[in-house]
């Protein structure tokens, strides 16, 4: 059990720290530091001065804020200091009613959260270097596609409304040129990801297993590998399905609330979109899932419900092929199904 808990509230340029001791409601200190390598060293020196204890008695906790929390997470990992990145929503929901909103107040709430839920702490472990690079390239590719789509759509609408203007023709032609250039950059990013896969036998093996499933393409496979830490962060397909927002939950209370079983809106939306695209492809080209889709349609089920079921099936297939180290066999039948 840790003796001291440090809550960190991240921002782009600075981080606020709050220090509490186990079993005490009294703050031992509040500090503000730069969100930089020098600031991290100053933070650690400040904690040492306040606690007069070695780092193995600390638990540092902060909200997962992407790039803003990345530097400190890496620094503490390199120094062997326990660091816990927690969902911002999870911390917020645990706070109860709060009328004040400042960075030091948030840092204190995070420190007390870490002390209260120490047994739930999931210590930060960095992804492999290659997986981290693939993650960055996926984000870059996504930004390129969004900008390309925005340019093309705006140019089409402008041309439709103002066809005769010379400036409009210039905008349309230039937008097409930029969109074509961005398409080349998208292909270049995808090529770079393939090069990285070739450098890691474990990643390439799982990639080939995932893409053996009809419906799972390159981007789906890579995104799943990134989000699961190459299948090390989720110990079951259902947990990953919950994270993606495709597992249905009951909605009932007392005798009057009898809502439909439905998926949660707390989800990784980009992954959910990719799974939807994969499911639509699968019910077209995967004979097993196509037959399932058609059978459920004949039973009168709604198309979106069936697609969500297919999303779940694809997740279970992905976890299964990786767990068994076997490529997807379209002719496989479960022993229980054969017995029936």
Structural summary, described in words:
This protein is an alpha/beta fold and 340 residues long. The protein has 3 domains: 4-120, Nucleotidyltransferase, domain 5; 129-199; 220-339, no CATH class. The chain contains 13 helices and 7 strands. A 5-stranded mixed sheet has the order 3-2-1-4-5. Strands 6-7 form a two-stranded antiparallel sheet. A hairpin with a 5-residue loop joins strand 2 (14-21) and strand 3 (27-34). Helix 5 packs across helix 8 (218-227) and helix 7 packs across helix 8. GO terms for molecular function: DNA binding; transposase activity. InterPro entries: Transp_IS110-like_N, Transpos_IS110, Transposase_20. This is Transposase.
Largest sheet: 5 strands, mixed
Overall mean pLDDT stands at 90
Number of strands: 7
Largest sheet, spatial ordering of strands: 3-2-1-4-5
Alpha-carbon distance between the two ends: 52 Å
Helical content stands at: 55-70%
Q: Residue ranges: pLDDT <50 for 5 or more in a row?
A: none
Oligomer: single chain
Total number of distinct structural domains: 3
Approximate shape:
globular
Radius of gyration, taken over Cα atoms and rounded to an integer in Å: 25 Å
The SSE order reads: EEEHEHEHHHHHHHEEHHHH
* Strand residue content: 5-15%
* SSE class: alpha/beta
Please work out how many helical segments DSSP would assign: 13
């Amino acid at each position: 059990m840790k003796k001291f808990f440090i809550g960190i509230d991240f921002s782009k340029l600075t981080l606020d720290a709050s220090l509490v001791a186990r079993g005490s409601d009294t703050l031992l200190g509040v500090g503000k530091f730069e969100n930089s390598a020098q600031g991290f060293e100053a933070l650690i020196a400040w904690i040492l001065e306040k606690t007069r204890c070695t780092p193995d008695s600390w638990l540092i906790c902060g909200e997962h804020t992407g790039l803003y929390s990345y530097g400190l997470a890496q620094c503490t990992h390199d120094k062997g200091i326990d660091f816990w990145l927690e969902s911002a929503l999870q911390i917020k929901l645990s706070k109860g009613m709060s009328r004040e909103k400042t960075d030091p107040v948030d840092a204190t709430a995070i420190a007390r959260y870490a002390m209260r839920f120490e047994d739930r702490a999931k210590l930060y472990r960095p992804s492999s270097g290659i997986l981290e690079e693939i993650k960055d390239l996926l984000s870059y590719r996504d930004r390129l596609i969004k900008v390309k789509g925005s340019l093309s759509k705006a140019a089409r609408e402008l041309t439709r409304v103002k066809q005769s203007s010379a400036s409009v023709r210039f905008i349309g032609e230039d937008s097409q040129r930029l969109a074509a250039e961005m398409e080349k950059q998208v292909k270049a990013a995808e090529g770079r990801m393939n090069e990285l896969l070739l450098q890691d036998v474990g990643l390439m093996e799982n990639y080939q297993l995932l893409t053996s499933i009809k419906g799972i393409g390159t981007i789906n496979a890579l995104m799943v590998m990134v989000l699961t830490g190459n299948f090390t962060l989720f110990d079951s397909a259902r947990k990953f399905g919950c994270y993606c927002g495709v597992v249905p939950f009951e909605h009932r209370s007392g005798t009057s609330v009898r809502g439909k079983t439905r998926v949660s809106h707390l989800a990784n939306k980009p992954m959910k979109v990719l799974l939807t695209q994969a499911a639509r492809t699968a019910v077209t080209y995967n004979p097993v899932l196509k037959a399932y889709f058609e059978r459920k349609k004949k039973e009168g089920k709604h198309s979106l419900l069936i697609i969500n079921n297919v999303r779940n099936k694809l997740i279970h297939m992905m976890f299964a092929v990786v767990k068994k180290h076997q490529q997807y066999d379209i002719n496989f039948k479960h022993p229980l199904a054969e017995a029936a």
